[in-house]
From TrEMBL:
Lineage: Eukaryota, Viridiplantae, Streptophyta, Embryophyta, Tracheophyta
Function: Required for the formation of a threonylcarbamoyl group on adenosine at position 37 (t(6)A37) in mitochondrial tRNAs that read codons beginning with adenine. Probably involved in the transfer of the threonylcarbamoyl moiety of threonylcarbamoyl-AMP (TC-AMP) to the N6 group of A37. Involved in mitochondrial genome maintenance.
Pfam families found in the cross-reference section: TsaD
Tagged with keyword Acyltransferase: yes
Subunit (UniProt): Homodimer.
Catalyzed chemical reaction(s): L-threonylcarbamoyladenylate + adenosine(37) in tRNA = N(6)-L-threonylcarbamoyladenosine(37) in tRNA + AMP + H(+)
The gene coding this protein: GCP1
Protein source organism: Gossypium tomentosum
An example Gene Ontology CC term for this record: mitochondrion
HAMAP family hit by this protein: TsaD
Name this protein carries in UniProt: Glycoprotease 1
Cofactor note: Binds 1 divalent metal cation per subunit.
Principal cellular location given in the protein's record: mitochondrion
Amino acid sequence: MAEEAHSQVIDQVVQDALDKASLTERELSAVAVTIGPGLSLCLRVGVQKARRVAGSFNLPIISVHHMEAHALVARLIEKELQFPFLALLISGGHNLLVLAHDLGHYTQLGTTIDDAIGEAFDKTAKWLGLDMRKSGGPAVEQLAQEGDAESVRFSIPMKQHKDCNFSYAGLKTQVKLAIASRNIDAKVPLSCASSLDRSSRADIAASFQRVAVLHLEERCERAVEWALKIEPSIKHLVVSGGVASNQYVRARLDQVVQKYSLQLVCPPPNLCTDNGVMIAWTGIENFRVGRYDPPPPANDPDDFMYDLRPRWPLGEEYAEGRSEARSLRRARVHPSLSSLVQASLQQQ
Ligand code: KG4
Ligand code: ZN
């Protein structure tokens, strides 16, 4: 279904982007396209389209890492943002803390051992019977404003692990149990709930959000300390990915960075959630330093093997941050972006 949805809209989406920019393909300098991480069926739709455009108009092509793009788009809006910097990338599928040394060179300080924070927001919204049209996160954030964040005592994940990894599966279960014990019926939409029911849902939303974000705060604080040891010159924490559009997340993380005299950089919400601008911008960054492939042929043969990287880490793991809980799940992972860039620089 996801592949089908991509195939149906890809031509129109590309055309709309060109129309909005009042450009034709002929005026482009290059084509940038995401090759991973993600579902290979969907990645293929994008890569095929990109190669068709690049091939027909004789344009170079740039392969982009989705998570690098979430981090780098911050440099489009904050011109002062130089490497090295620290980045927290929080979305529906990813929860990453990375130290960005340079373009294409990252050290992974932490990641999630199970679910990402956006997934926990989405499930909480669903179980609370909230309007999911804009995805769950914004609905939880809005309802949380009415609630008492101290009323439900959820425990903070992974307190005993002194690293920068994340876990949201346990918090999701705690939320589910709290909802069941208060007899909240997700089939009754919030708009039809009694005022008592509504305030009980709001308390859960606020308490969940507080603890979900406390977990981010603790991990970011440790990551800043690690990052300052490895790269003492860092001045910024970039927070990007869909969940970074949450105002409470921004305010709390701002408090964390102020303690270390760092600056928080959050792209505007429309550039935090998945978007084409971040891919184009990462293309520009790579293009400027000569990292691109020559124009592909106008038509790929039917049996062409596309270079798609569904599981593709951004960088090598920082030794202190290695988690045993994750070591069992490392099968069929592509070599990291950073290791590939390093290898090609050594060859030159
Ligand atoms: O980056 P993104 O658009 O797509 C992925 O790559 O996952 O992130 C989507 C995620 C969803 O889980 C959504 O619920 C969450 O970001 N999100 C939010 C907010 N806006 C989007 N979570 C919390 N508060 C928000 N305001
Ligand atoms: Zn994303």
